[in-house]
Amino acid sequence: MSGLPLLSFVVWLPILGGLLVLALGERFNPRPVALAVAMITFLTSLLLYTGFDQGTPAMQFQEQLSWIPSFNVFYHLGVDGIAMPLIILTTFTTVLVVLAGWEVIKERPAQYLAAFLVMEGLMNGVFAALDAVLFYVFWEGMLIPMFLIIGVWGGPRRVYATIKFFLYTFLGSVFMLVALIYLYTQSGSFAILDFHALKLGMTEQVLIFVAFLLAFAVKVPMWPVHTWLPDAHVEAPTGGSVILAAIMLKVGGYGFLRFSLPITPDASHELDWLIIFMSLTAVVYIGFVALVQQDMKKLIAYSSIAHMGFVTLGIFLVFPLMDANAGSTQGALLGMQGGMIQMISHGFISGALFLCVGVLYDRMHSREIGDYGGVVNTMPVFAAFMVLFAMANSGLPGTSGFVGEFLVIIASFRANFWFALFAAFTLILGAAYSLWLVKRVVFGDVGNARVAQLQDINSRESLILGALAFMVLLFGLWPAPLVDVMQSSLENLVAHVAVSKL
Amino acid sequence: MIPAPGEFVLLIPEIFVLSMACLILVLDLFLRDNERVISYWLAQISLGFVAVITLALNDGQTHLVFHGTYIADPMAAALKVSIYLVTALAFLYSRHYLYERGLFKGEYYVLGLFAMLGMMVMVSAHSLLTIYLGLELLSLSLYAMVAFNRDAYPCTEAAMKYFVLGALASGMLLYGMSMLYGLSGSLDIELIAQALGGKAPSAPLIFTTTFIVVGLAFKLGAVPFHMWVPDVYQGAPTPVTQFIGSASKIAAFAMVMRLLSESIGSLQPQWGDMLAVLAVLSLAIGNVVAIAQTNLKRMLAYSTISHIGFLLLGILSGTQQGYAAAMFYVITYALMAAGAFGMIILLSRAGFEADEISDFKGLNQRNSWFAFMMLILMFSMAGVPPTVGFYAKLAVLQAVIGVDMLWLAAVAVFFSVIGAFYYIRMVKVMYFDQAEDDTPLAAHFDLRFGLSANALAILLLGLFPGSLMSLCRQVFGN
Predict the structure, then answer these.
(1) Which chain A positions have a beta carbon within 8 Å of B465's beta carbon?
(2) Fewer CB near the terminus (10 Å): N or C of chain A?
(3) Is A19 on the interface with B (CB under 8 A)?
């Protein structure tokens, strides 16, 4: 399969397909076209999995073309075990999002679907880019469709939310751009792999690390730069929320793995306490914040922040683990593995929860928890799904949510008892806000007359939620495929960060 | 000494434009009102021909002719062709606008050609005198163009302001030039560079540099010499604003290059610091004040000021890379500005100027294609990839970081985030707000076509910036 430009295909097919949908306009029904594009892209991305060589940490499916010769910029794509699962997650989620907007979006559906398809291509580009300028182009380009999705199809305060979203993320990323250009002046190349090999002094590393941190922490989002996320989620249309939670947040976590750790390992080691502190704050404090939310989407948004805290915690636990093992990389992998699995799993679970809220919102046009109650009486199938996803969100064994959290908590135990103590709070808090949400919305007596008239989910909605439920259970019961794919890339990364660059 | 006949060959573009301008001026007298379009087409055709001539004459070498007062080098050729292109766009956008307002007169195109001739002279000038000659030819034509709608009060006010402040700036520049002549004993750029090269910067030299920098800053509209920019941009007829905001910036860049880098390049540490102050102030004031504007032309004026800040960043690095980056910046900026003002022209109709930001409300509902074109232009100005504005900023930042001025780069990106706000507010107005005015766009085909090509060029250059970037690099020999 290595002969075909598969990565270019998964990047450009959705973008061109999106433009096609846009060009066809509202005269045709744009939905089947968009679905076909999304499906073909998804199936193509599966070839990445089947053709993937799990034995090597090297970049695979590489494509390299000269792009801006005067800056030594290449159109260079390639994936390893970290990026490949995220690409498949993106293509999978986009199919669901296209389906989810099928009947709901009545205003300018062609533009809506085009925005999501273009977005898909750009996100795939972010994960596949091996050239810093190319990466940055995709990274920033991603903002434009999302800005429009929230602003055009969003809720009442959409303008505030979307401008806040745009400026917040833009502010974070421009400093990353400065850092990337600095790395270029030092290495003479924009290739990310050359950056990995570049020797850097401590001061430089710390500054670069901080610049990267600004970009990635905003994207993840980490406490205390998370405030754009609840606003964006609440105002975004369902599809926007799903993409935001399932993929865009992962871009931040991916950035830590692809940029911060390998380029500035010593600064990452030096400042790991900061990240771990921020992550634990997210887990504990944001967990409490989620508990008191009255708006379902806000609750899930805060829950996302708390869960992403687990991801960053897992990633940066690699340093305390190495310290605890006297510098040996043995066992240091555990947290990072947990973080990666948590990213994928959170993609499914948070996406599913936002879709559940979307299902309710389409019927009742309210996201207030107080407007619901006893939904199980009128929507039993839906209730089963929602309970499953809430359980997964709180980390019930047998669901994918459990695997990641469990690995991270074990890793933090090995590193430091106190880390583990705070990290374990998530088991209590996650269960508390997820189950309390379910209790108030799904169970109990029928809350009011409108709930009594609810129709259960149709086959389209069952299909979407069923697909997600399948993935959640699959990776909960059998995470091995995921772990195997990432194994050698993560081992290589840990070995890389263990070597000082000073 | 009489110049050799061969030397005139290099001057053919200027001679051709001059002859065509005079021809149109005379011919226009004999045209009836309904035949006026002949003047327009003649002007456009001359632009096409002069572009061919300029390209044919450019052999990649540097030629100094007429006792070193005129230079034909790759930079001049590249900048001239960009000027023709942007001028052609300005003429194209102006045609129906002027016609609908009863201003469609041959003089407009004659003045435009004369202004362009001034720019060409500035670009190819290699002595203080020719620089000044070109500058004045440009300025005088522009003063007249700003006042073209002489019965409209804002136009004459803008023209008056432009004239008085422009004259003041010319005075500053001339004063600096006269001191430069006194210190070096020559008007020739190369001889000045030779005379000053290796000399320690003395007080009179720095004094001279200050005057020249102030004069240039006035012309460019850099803070704190920017006061005329918003008033002139707002008051002038929109096609004229477009012409001032796009083509003349390219010429101003050439003038800065000839005066600062080529003649007093040895004083780069001194003028570099001055430009750094101007650049930071321009970025700050331009971006912050633009947020408060409700008039789109004024907003774009402040946006120009902030872009000038970025342009100065490229120049002040004093490296070939930096000059190349600045050149890339100015050419792409001229294209963006041409498109943005073109959008105002597109939405305007007789008796209605779409120059308020609120006039763009709900454009996506009225015409989603042109809303998308404006979206490209706005994101490009904000420097968001995949538009060309991003690469312009990337190149400049890279030049600045290349000379270890990280703090300047940090300041620049910080203010560009602030700047992003008012550009995305335009997108917000077009896409998220409801249209108040449902009149369908009644623009003619040529305007629609030109504007679409203009905006798509921004996007295409953003996807494939390599060739233009290489060209700018080659011009500066790397």
Answers:
(1) 68
(2) C
(3) no
Kindly report which listed range (A283-287, A349-353, B65-69) carries the lowest average pLDDT score: B65-69
Distance separating the N- and C-terminal Cα atoms of chain A: 40
Residue of A nearest to B427 (CA): A148
Peptide bond into B386 cis (omega under 30): yes
Q: Which residue of B has its CA nearest to A141?
A: B385
Q: Is some CB atom of chain B closer than 8 A to the CB atom of A143?
A: yes
Retrieve residue A237's tokens: 């249309």
User: Three-state secondary structure along chain B?
Assistant: CCCCHHHHHHCHHHHHHHHHHHHHHHHHHCCCHHHCHHHHHHHHHHHHHHHHHHHHHCCCCCEEECCCCEEECHHHHHHHHHHHHHHHHHHHHHHHHHHHCCCCCHHHHHHHHHHHHHHHHHHHECEHHHHHHHHHHHHHHHHHHHCCCCCCHHHHHHHHHHHHHHHHHHHHHHHHHHHHHHHHCCCEHHHHHHHHCCCCCCHHHHHHHHHHHHHHHHHHCCCCCCCHHHHHHHHCCHHHHHHHHCHHHHHHHHHHHHHHHHHCHHHHHHHHHHHHHHHHHHHHHHHHHHHCCCEHHHHHHHHHHHHHHHHHHHHHCCCHHHHHHHHHHHHHHHHHHHHHHHHHHHHCECCECCCEHHHHCCHHHHCHHHHHHHHHHHHHHHCCCCCHHHHHHHHHHHHHHHCCCHHHHHHHHHHHHHHHHHHHHHHHHHHCCCCCCCCCCCCCHHHHHHHHHHHHHHHHHHHCCHHHHHHHHHHCCC
Mean pLDDT calculated for residue range B124-143: 92
Rounded CA separation A418/A311 (Å): 17
With CB atoms and an 8 Å threshold, state whether B428 touches A159. yes
Contact B384 A144 (CB under 8 A): yes
Say if residues A123 and B376 touch (Cβ distance below 8 Å). Answer: no
Q: What are the domain boundaries of chain B?
A: 5-475
Q: Which has the higher per-residue pLDDT, B252 or B199? A: B252
* Residue A375 near residue A312 (C-beta atoms within 8 A): no
- Calculate the average pLDDT of chain A: 87
Q: How are beta strands B63-65 and A73-79 bridged, if at all?
A: unpaired
Which two three-digit tokens encode residue B120?
A: 């060409």
pLDDT of residue A1: 42
Which tokens is A300 given? Answer: 């899930």
What span, in angstroms and rounded, lies between the C-alpha atoms of B64 and B127?
Answer: 11
* Residue spans of alpha helices (H) in A101-131: 109-128
Q: Among residues of chain B, what percentage have pLDDT more than 90? A: 38
Q: Which helix (H) or strand (E) holds A453?
A: none
Q: How far is B413 from chain A (nearest CA, A)?
A: 6
Residue range A438-454: average pLDDT? 83
| Radius of gyration of chain A, Cα coordinates, nearest whole angstrom | 22
A-proximal residues of B, 108-127, CB under 8 Å: none
Neighbours of B45 (CB within 10 A): 11
Residues contacting A57, CB < 8 A, separation 6+:
A80, A81, A488, A489, A491, A492, A493
| Euclidean distance between CA atoms B372 and A20, whole angstroms | 15
Residue A176 Cα, gap to closest chain B Cα (Å) = 10
Q: Which of B178, B161, B262 is nearest to B212 (CA)?
A: B178
Rounded to whole angstroms, what are the CA distances from A319 to A204, A258, A265, A323, B7?
Answer: 20, 16, 9, 6, 71
Assigned token pair, A487: 């194994």
pLDDT, residue A323, reads 80
pLDDT of A210: 92
Top residue of A27, A70, A158, A207 to mutate, by most chain B CBs within 10 Å, is: A70
Whole-number Cα distances in Å, A466 to A44, A327, A356, A381, A462: 22, 45, 11, 10, 6
> Residue written as tokens 């296209």?
A98
